[in-house]
Amino acid sequence: MTDYDVIVIGGGISGLLSALTLSKYGKNVLVLEKNSSVGGNCNSYTVDGFQVDTGPHAITHLREGPLRRLIDEYFTYVPVFLDYGTYYVRTEKGLTKIPSNIQDFVTFDVLPRKDRLLLSQALTKALTLNAFGMLDGSQSIYDFLPKGLSKDTLDFVDAIAPFLSGRSMKETSVNRVLYGSSFVRDSVSEDIFKDEAVPNGNSYASTLTGMLSKYQLTARLSTLGRLATNRVAYAQAYPRGGLKSLLNSVLYSMPSNVSIKTGAHVCEILTLDGRTTGVATDTDTYTADAVVYSGFVKTLPSLVPLPSDFKENISRIEQTLSLTIWLGLSEKMKEFDYMGSEVWFKNGAYWAMPISNYDPTIAPKGKQLVGFTFIIDDKKNIESEKKRALEIIMRAIPGIDKKIEMMHYQIIIPEKAAVTINGFIAGQRSPIANLYLAGTDTDNRSMGVTRAAYSVLELLRVMKEDKKL
Ligand SMILES: Cc1cc2nc3c(=O)[nH]c(=O)nc-3n(C[C@H](O)[C@H](O)[C@H](O)COP(=O)(O)OP(=O)(O)OC[C@H]3O[C@@H](n4cnc5c(N)ncnc54)[C@H](O)[C@@H]3O)c2cc1C
Questions:
Q1: For the residues 161-167, what does the mean pLDDT come to?
Q2: The whole model's pTM is what?
Q3: Ligand 1 atom nearest to 56, measured from its CA
Q4: Ligand 1 within 6 A of CB of 32
Q5: CATH 3.50.50.60 corresponds to the domain 4-42+241-317+417-465
Q6: Residue ranges per structural domain of the chain
Q7: Which residues pair with 12 in a beta bridge?
């Protein structure tokens, strides 16, 4: 007789979603979180009257993606999602909408005209070759790009690459642009192409459809159509009340057969004859029929002996370090009079989001809260990276320094694994029987919370396959 059916190590959004879903299968679940509160990278807290999130967040694929599926099937309380708004690029001239189709791209005068033409030709070429299965998608974006692009254009592509993979354009594959973006659907556990349709009146497509694999070709050609017409229907949102509202809705939905212990650092995963039997924290030991690990897979070898080939794969997991600077402004600035987010890419990139525009209660009355995120080099001195980041903000938003009332820094690894060309993604099964893995280093679909939700759906599928559910 074990203490629990399942022990979940880690109380971030992946661990909590794992616990919630497993509990609905009647399992008695224990969640062990090393920190004094749960939530991990999905939380909010107050600094000098401003409620900051653990990094600026856009919750994606909400209309029909994996989180929507979990919400519909398992949540008792659902956060109020506010429409995300628009993605902009900021230059010295102000804000311009980031194009999401070729039509818009033609008039995107942030980049030189010659470069826009070269880029749209390169994208069309990639999609066409992909449609016929002739694309070497494993090459990097940088290698695929036409030669002769300006520094600004290369900086722009490099600023966008982390949205797709977490890393630079030299480390991100062309496949990631096609499958990790909304141009080609990146869902696998859903019936991938069930509602894919050939663009209206495309007889070219329908003739070829008969000649080649129906599903693949219609889906791939519809990608071309979507690119031309921007028929992308993925809702993105920000939770009213801040990111912690998403966390709270998971916690409020948790039934009584889930126990959560904070301040419980798991330092060993116990095994007997190649099977997991439970875990040990600094002070206690708990037994269970199965263990779900949602911490860094990269650090799994310090918790349990693993076969050398798996350890070698794990050593290929690549991560990114982010620096977010939250600025509480003494008054609203016209520069941030929008819903959505902005990217700055010239000689240093940031992604910024004025989160108090969604919900004014996030900032004291009449004030504004903006988060700026940078990718930083973990080998460089953190203080000099902070200084460089601040200089970029001052350059992009002249006069902001006079409005700063609160400044708060966060240094966080946003995803447990970047999806790079040579990187490794662990999957949900470990080499040890009854030890499962969940989180953003176990699934390569999408990014962030959406990827975490994919990993949990996949965890359920795998555990069902293993007759654990
Ligand atoms: C700046 C920034 C911007 C982001 N932007 C977005 C965005 O726009 N959209 C989006 O969807 N996502 C975004 N994300 C990513 C998103 O927040 C994460 O992907 C998600 O919260 C990860 O959840 P997780 O549970 O997989 O991991 P984590 O949040 O890292 O949770 C893991 C938990 O396990 C605990 N743990 C680890 N080891 C142990 C142990 N041995 N014993 C006990 N406990 C342990 C940790 O303390 C932690 O609480 C962003 C993140 C950052 C930092």
A1: 87
A2: 0.90
A3: 3
A4: yes
A5: yes
A6: 4-42+241-317+417-465, 101-229
A7: 39
